[in-house]
Amino acid sequence: MNMRVVGIQLVLLLVLGSAESAFRAHRRYTPDWPSVDSRPLPDWFDKAKFGVFVHWGVFSVPAFGSEWFWWHWQGQRVPQYMRFMSDNYPPGFSYADFGPLFTAHFFDPEKWADLFQASGAKYVVLTAKHHEGFTNWPSPVSWNWNSKDVGPHRDLVGELGTAIRKRNIRYGLYHSLFEWFHPLYLFDKKNGFKTQHFVTAKTMPELYDLVNRYKPDLIWSDGDWESPDTYWNSTDFLSWLYNDSPVKDEVVVNDRWGVNCSCRHGGYYNCEDKFKPSSLPDHKWEMCSTTDKRSWGYRRNMVISDIADEAEIISELVQTVSLGGNYLLNIGPTKDGLIVPIFQERLLAVGKWLSINGDAIYASKPWRVQSEKNTSVWYTSKGSAVYAIFLHWPENGVLNLKSPNSTSTTQITMLGIQKDLTWSTNPHEGLFIYLPQLPPSALPVEFAWTVKMTGVE
After folding, report:
1. Sheet bearing 422-425, strands edge to edge
2. Is the whole-model pTM more than 0.85?
3. What's the CA gap between 11 and 170, in Å, rounded?
4. Spatial distance between the Cα atoms of 251 and 30, rounded to a whole number of angstroms
């Protein structure tokens, strides 16, 4: 009798589970924020933790100031940009004249993808179109201002996507909703965004084309801050993306879909560039940061003090993941399609660190405590394991952790070191962990070491 009851219960559970899965699979999202925001975030994104951002476009030709070069030169007429142009280019030289100089001559998507794989990145986001309007693919609505018609005469988005996906890395596309100087956008802006000529002729056709043509795993939207989401028809696009697009089950989006959307609507939250919350947010988020602290695009005049060092980058990664975020690290290639050695070096340093400490990062979850009060120790967790990543090696070789409580089954190891570490209970609170007495050259990494604890509370 009992076995029969158990069997019936199992059948009911299977039926209910199948019904729930079917409901999720066939649920239709309506074009409004309450519905679109209710869509669960595909779990691959939270597991990925680390990605590489690539800012590349015609702005890589002047390679001066930042990727906002055109706006600073022609929109704001900043004196140093005006002087740069008069010193280096003939009178009458226009921004469009930079287009043929964006050659991507040395662009080798396989080499880029090898580098990104070696960095430990689980997703890569490429600028398909920045605010300048130049598209890195043959957009049918960007005639003579795309990478197939002008400059490289190649489909940069498609070529990189093919190489990235061979290595089982997720592929995302950055897309700017607006364009600084597009006549239709300026016309709509003059009308107080009561007309939508630019949206219907340019923005939306491009977004649908990108999705149908390249099937991105992620859409990194930007350029939203001047106009409301109703102007952009954002919820119409997102409901189609989630209901009927070829990537409806796997695609992830951010939160930049119109004025006041940031940190409120969309998929995961960026909130702002280089966003750093002070406590654990209740919504999935991503910190985007850049290797060159002064620009997202490549700058010819960058100096070493402008470049984030390895310890800064890894510290940001650790803190971001401890607080439940993903870390998206940007590099800017040259107009020729080269990733300069200093950027390669930084990415490879992250990859080397993750090859030892990745168990504490990938697919981890925030622990009940995110950091010690001195903020030099950050925690993550995975299943029954708790990881403490400490940014400074204690002078006496004893790591004092106040938050974990030991049990009769406590075991402690250091990632990259084979044998267990000895430890004792702190009479006041927490644990004393006795770190291996090794010369610095024998330690698994040069900074940000990880202890793995099981059987702690």
Report:
1. 398-401, 431-434, 422-425
2. yes
3. 37
4. 17
